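Standup notes
- HV: blocked on the assembly model, inputs below
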Amino acid sequence: MYVASLFMQAKAASALRGAFLAQVFGMMLNNAAVIVAWGFFFDKFGTIHGWGLHDFIAMQAVSMFIYGAILFASTGLMDIPRHVDTGSFDAFLTKPVSVLGQVGSSNIDISTVGDMVLGLVLMVWYIVTTDVSLMALLLFVLSICSALVIFWCAVMLFPYILAFYVFDSERLSRYFGVMFLDAMNFPGGLLTGALRAFFLVVVPSLMVGVVPVDILRGLEWKWVGYGAIIAIVWLVFSLWLFRRALRRYESANLVGSR
Amino acid sequence: MYRLQNVSAYWHVMMMSAREDRANPVRLIGSAALGVVRMILLAAIYKIAYATQTHVSLPYANAVWSIGLYFALIIGLSTRNVFKLIDREVKTGGVEAVLVRPIDWRLTKVCMQIGKNLLEVAITATAFIVALTIIVGLPDMSFVTPGFIAGYLVLMLLAIVASSALFVTVGLTAFWLNDAMPTYRIVDKIILVFGGAFVPIALLPQVVQDVVRYSPFGVYAASTQLFNPGLVKHLMPTIVSSIIWTVITVLFCNWVWARVQAKIEVNGG
């Protein structure tokens, strides 16, 4: 049902072919502009702590791919505050299927295809142009899996649970997501000390953008394990919190049909 | 955008929108907190970068304050988001109904957008001043004169006018493209690259700085250069260039608006 709903959303979103292509290419140009902006930074300062433009592009590629894949699959979660505030959340509670699956697939952002495609292309480019071992590649794939889970929990689900506790919380939730994205998109590989620890554990943005690239660059395999632990903790915690928050939801008796 | 006799009406629109911000103080605090975290992150990255280089003309504190200015002014005021208000009304067909009003629809949207963010800008700017003073210290302002401040204020005003006209035009593209978002993303990111969001203008290669200064994006770039000693030398040419590009942007917006008005079909009812 989740896949069918997502497929329907994708089909509807791509019905206007011109607008669909403009969205996808617009997003690709958008991402390329961020790389150009930070390209000037690396042009000025050169390689810092072993991180150069080449590695930054790889980090951006991983971030783009993860952002695109997760948003494509569950954009609807970002509508939780609106559903809760208006009472339209009722519609998701009456069916004998996963509430999160239904909400996640209830909307789609088709421009995320641009993120996924450009991210994938740049990741392949980095792997081809860098001396990467088969083992590193395998660990990289595993770290991407952890990163996908962390991103889904920390950006798509956890912040939007706030809607069950605070009215009109949509922008507040987005601020948390943006904070996570900032650390994921800036050259976080340069960070050291307490700030690095904070963005690895508390707000684990570096686990999404930086660690997978570090693994390709030869970082120790144990970081894949740390990533898996953080992913499991976030998954268990955010699902537990969601179930708990769901009990607070009070129907607004909204009359409508879906 | 010519009906200036309705200034008080536009002022009321702006103040009405400003009330929206006051109604949600948690959101205002959240926005300021996000901005401060972002600046801490950028300050840390630049501190590490500056530690590797000794020949950077722009002092470290000035670089971080310049980025702060971009986020407080351009992102905070969010005149760019006027495109969303226009795009929404084009999609819903609401634009037909508002054209009969005696005030300019586009200017009303700009006032709504600016009003909505006035308080947020004030709070974010205050939070930035406090946070950046603690994190990186005060910037070097030894080059600043009253004339420079006056020139900078003119540039800031021109940036608000030019960016409003530009993003109104972006919003109007929805009449042809069904959705203005792709156009917005491209224009917005070009401003981000050449406006000094992540890398201050003074740190861009000299040839890029020269091109940006006299390009349409020079208006936005100039508005974030209060802490750039290099602007002193180019202040007058930058103001002249900014005036020319602002006039061109406003005229272009009016031209597109004229085409749009010819395209609008009022269905009645």
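- HV (later): unblocked. Chain B touches chain A at residues 24, 26-27, 30-31, 33-34, 37-38, 40-42, 44-45, 48-50, 52-53, 56, 177-179, 181-183, 185-186, 188-190, 192-193, 197-199, 203-205, 208 (CB under 8 Å). Chain B has one domain: 4-263.
- Next: hand off to the docking folks.
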